[in-house]
Amino acid sequence: QVQLVESGGGAAQAGNSLRLSCVASGRTFYAMGWFRQAEGKEREFVATMGWSGISTYAESAKGRFTISRDNAKNAVFLQMNSLKREDTAVYYCAASATAERLTTTSGYQYWGLGTQVTVSS
Fold first, then answer.
1. Which residues lie below 8 Å from residue 17, measured CB to CB, with a gap of 6+?
2. DSSP 69-102
3. Alpha carbon of 111 to those of 2, 63, 74, 114: distances in Å?
4. Per-chain mean pLDDT for the chain
5. Phi, psi of 106 (to 5 degrees)
6. Can you spell out the DSSP letters for 33-69?
7. I want to staple 50 with a disulfide (CB 3.0 to 4.6 A). Which of 62, 71, 85, 100 is the partner?
8. Residue 101's pLDDT band (boundaries 50, 70, 90)?
9. From CA 55, how far away is CA 48, in angstroms rounded?
10. Contact, 102 vs 108, CB < 8 A?
């Protein structure tokens, strides 16, 4: 049974940093990434990294967020720096067993339950 478990969310002030972690169990994946969903909005892509180590970022994340992956531990991380109020959302870990460089929700078969990130000014 596949499980994705996120951790590391919480409250932060604008300009500060948070680091999200996601550990997967049950199998390995071509792609592991992060999406987020703000209240009243659709879930949106943040970043993804393939087994090869190639990463892709949303424009909103470029230059501020860094995704990394530990294949040995089946884990993916998201270092979020220079946080803004608009980064407030529930962040979801996602994993795909089919391909890398996927930026849409439909490409991911497995999802974590999400972790709340709240950024205040």
1. 79, 80, 81, 82, 83
2. EETTTTEEEEEE-S--GGG-EEEEEEEESS-SS-
3. 9, 25, 14, 8
4. 96
5. -65, -15
6. EEEEE-TTS--EEEEEEETTS-EEE-TTTTTTEEEEE
7. 100
8. confident
9. 6
10. yes
Query: What local confidence, expressed as pLDDT, does residue 99 receive?
Result: 84
Nearest residue to 21 via CA among 3, 36, 31, 34:
34
Per-position b or e across 70-94, b if 16+ CB within 10 A of its CB: eeeebbbbbebeebeeebbbbbbbb
Q: What one-character DSSP code corresponds to residue 26? A: S
Specify the residue for token string 């892709």. 56
Tokens of 69: 């992956």
Looking up tokens 């999400």, which residue turns up? 114
**What amino acid occupies position 71?**
N
pLDDT at 41: 98
C-alpha closest to that of 28 among 109, 114, 90: 109
